[in-house]
Amino acid sequence: MPKKKKSLEENLIRLEEIAEQMENSDTDLSAAMKLYKEGIIICAECAEALDAAKQEVEEISVCTSKN
Predict the structure, then answer these.
(1) What proportion of the chain, given as a percentage, has pLDDT over 90?
(2) How many domains does the chain have?
């Protein structure tokens, strides 16, 4: 079963957690690399969500300006 996409807010919370873990000097290189990879994937998902929201706002603005 495919993973359910997390909301933008959930992804931002996870990015905060990742940043905190990576700032911890006890995090070894292997774990830091896994966290970094996860963070990059989450950043891409956030960008996608923001792009979709921007497009929706632009569509709404076009519709309201026609009236």
Answers:
(1) 73
(2) 1
